[in-house]
Amino acid sequence: MKDIEFTLNGKKVHSAADPLKRLLDVLRDDFTETGVKEGCGEGECGACSVLMDGKLVNSCMVPIGAAEGCDIVTPEGLRETEKGKVIIESFADSGAVQCGFCTPGMMMAADALLEENSNPSEEEIREALSGNLCRCTGYDLIVKGVKDSATRGKKLW
Amino acid sequence: MVDSYKPATLKEALALRKQHDLIPLAGGTDLMVKYQSWSGTLPRFPKGALFISRLPELKGIEKRGESLIIGAGATLSDVAAFPDTPKVLRDAVLSIAAPGIRNIATLAGNICNASPAGDSICALYALDASVVLQRTGSERTVPVMKFITGPGKTVLEGDELVTAVIVLLEKANISIFKKVGTRKANALSKLSFSAVAEVKGGVIDGIALAFGAVGPTVVRSVELEKKCIGKKRSEIESNIEEIVRDYSTMIVPIDDQRSSAEYRKQVALNLLRNFLTEELAGGMR
């Protein structure tokens, strides 16, 4: 594998990286998508969450070779959409952000959930966020942020 | 730099597997951790990867007669969402990691990783599942119980790929999966327990009990299960302590960072006793 093509936030892009380079590093280092965070680097924390073909994935666990031909959406991509704006506002108004490190990943998980289930219960929200750690431990407010996103973005998802 | 390949078809993948010494990589969620290096640097794979997750031939899940054929590219999320997936397997799969990992990790990968704590493996033992192995020009089907030979060890040959997992559709009317871990999401099992049973006309017609993370491979004894076949509720109830004693000699866990041997054994036997009393004898009422 030499030239790896994938879609990044709606645009076709190319990477000449080693196919085993982590999608996380390709996004941060080569495309300056620094909304994608590295927490644990082993799939425990969800800070590096992105959408791959519409599904939530941990970008630290995806070699770029496996993402060839895939549609990748990062927090920077989500931010520009109507849905992203609703999530950002809802998180802000709910007080769902403390230090902010986990927030981009939480927002990706929230969008992935709402895409599948536009009116989730609290339990479904907690399950959907179960791979995202917040070490400020503000989970209740994050859950509220997702609930508010669902209410405010009723017709979007 | 090691050379990696992303074939477009299964045929091409099998040819590459034969020509080169490559590590098959489907979801990669175990391999990327295994070969993880310093932050921002390349993972240290000893060989190139053969990316197989998107091979169209391996993607599907289909019900064929009394079996479920799960393609080796099917993710844990795919398996959990498929309507005919047996309950014990669905529960096991949903106990693994968290949505982001289940969206790329595959069932076949969980088997090939062959961890004694692999949660789907425990359920697949109880379901008498098999794996289909292909190499260019030939194919063989091996029961999961024979496929895994030890921690991280399988009978997969260097030129073979796992292409599918075959699960017999459960006739069971009693079916449970229990996982004991430090928390619900993203925890590796301290131990796990799968049980399926078919009760017909007030007697046990079929039963399978499997224990994960309490030995070098998942523990299951067809011989001990046979002792339960044809038994009525009263016969099970009066034999519970004997059955637990029989299993007690087979369950020989180790101490490690996740748990102690003593805890694992005690809890495994408690889960067994509880299953026999509540779900099995209770379900025969």
Tally of separate helices of chain A: 6
Mean pLDDT of chain A: 97
Domain unit count of chain B: 2
- Largest β-sheet summary of chain A: 5 strands, mixed
User: Kindly, what is the distance between the CA atoms of the first and last residues of chain B, rounded to a whole number of angstroms?
Assistant: 64 Å
Quaternary structure annotation: heterodimer
Major beta sheet summary of chain B: 5 strands, antiparallel
Helix content of chain B: 25-40%
- Give the CATH topology of the largest domain in chain A: DNA polymerase, domain 1
Q: Can you identify the CATH class of the largest domain in chain A?
A: Mainly Alpha
Overall geometric form of chain A: globular
Low-confidence stretches of chain B: none
Category by helix and strand content of chain B: alpha+beta
Number of strands of chain A: 5
Largest interface: A-B, 35 and 32 residues
Strand order of the largest sheet of chain A: 2-1-5-3-4
The top-level CATH class of the largest domain in chain B is: Alpha Beta
Q: How large is the count of helical segments of chain B?
A: 11
Cα Rg of chain B:
20 Å
User: What is the overall shape of chain B?
Assistant: globular
Provide a descriptive summary of the structure in words.
The complex is a heterodimer of chains A (157) and B (285). With 157 residues, chain A is of the alpha+beta class. Chain A folds into 2 domains: 4-74, Roll (Ubiquitin-like (UB roll)); 78-151, [2Fe-2S]-binding domain (DNA polymerase, domain 1, Orthogonal Bundle), CATH 1.10.150. Chain A has 6 helices and 5 strands, in the order ββαβββααααα. Chain A has a 5-stranded mixed β-sheet with strand order 2-1-5-3-4, sandwiched between helices. In chain A, strand 3 and strand 4 form a beta hairpin. Chain A is globular, with a radius of gyration of 15 Å. In chain A, 54% of the residues are buried. The mean pLDDT of chain A is 97. With 285 residues, chain B is of the alpha+beta class. Chain B has 2 domains: 10-168, 2-Layer Sandwich (Uridine Diphospho-n-acetylenolpyruvylglucosamine Reductase, domain 3), CATH 3.30.465.10; 174-283, CO dehydrogenase flavoprotein, C-terminal domain (Enolase-like, domain 1). Chain B is built from 11 helices and 12 strands. In chain B, the strands form 4 sheets. Chain B has a 5-stranded antiparallel β-sheet with strand order 3-4-9-5-6. Chain B has a 3-stranded antiparallel β-sheet with strand order 10-11-12, sandwiched between helices. In chain B, strand 5 (130-135) and strand 6 (138-143) form a beta hairpin. In chain B, helix 4 (87-94) runs antiparallel to helix 7 (119-126) and helix 10 (233-250) runs antiparallel to helix 11 (261-283). Chain B starts with 9 loop residues before the first helix and ends with a helix. At the A-B interface, strand 4 of A face helix 5 of B.
